[in-house]
Amino acid sequence: MEISVFLRRSTCDRLWDHRRAMPPHVNINVNLSILEWAQKEMGIAEAEASFIYTVNYLPSVAQISLKGTVRVTGEKKEVDEVLDAERQKKPPLPAVFQAVMNFCTAQAVMLSQSTNVPPPIPPIQMPPAEQKTQPQKSQPYA
To answer: What is residue 20's DSSP assignment?
Structure first.
């Protein structure tokens, strides 16, 4: 199965004044909606759906919106599996969802850099510092 993602529209609005410092804590909410799938008859098995990816910040420092199309081509069985998931009101296949999410996140990071707002990726968590244990003193043989 081949998954292609195409961007039709992207917007990034910075709502926070550039002269003000960013708030110390900003919550970022990311949402991806893949809309109705349509089967395309072009001699090969193919299905297409529109998607909307949004990033909202709280407090409202910015908004990012991406709209586009995801296309799945491959074996008829694979494409039917994508279409059946929607008919049965199931979430999209993980491979399709992840492909669109990865594409959109990369685009959103670039847009956030151009407007100087926090990128919509989770911060890296440092592992807790391990406590150093004192070496055990060996007991002499008796």
So the answer is: S
Quick one: which of 74, 68, 76, 141 has its CA closest to 107? 68
Beta strands in the chain (DSSP E): 2-14, 27-41, 45-58, 62-74
Residues 89 and 14: their CA atoms lie apart, in Å, by 36
Residue 47's identity, in one-letter code, is A
Residue type present at position 32: L
Please list the pLDDT of the chain residue by residue as tens digits (142 residues). Answer: 899 999 999 999 999 998 999 899 999 999 999 998 988 776 678 999 999 999 999 999 999 999 999 999 988 888 889 888 888 988 899 999 999 999 999 999 999 999 999 999 877 777 776 655 555 555 555 4
Domain boundaries defined on the chain: 2-115
Token pair in block for residue 31: 């949402």
Q: Is 85 left (phi over 0), alpha (psi -120 to 50) or beta?
A: alpha
Fill in the amino acid letter for 76: K
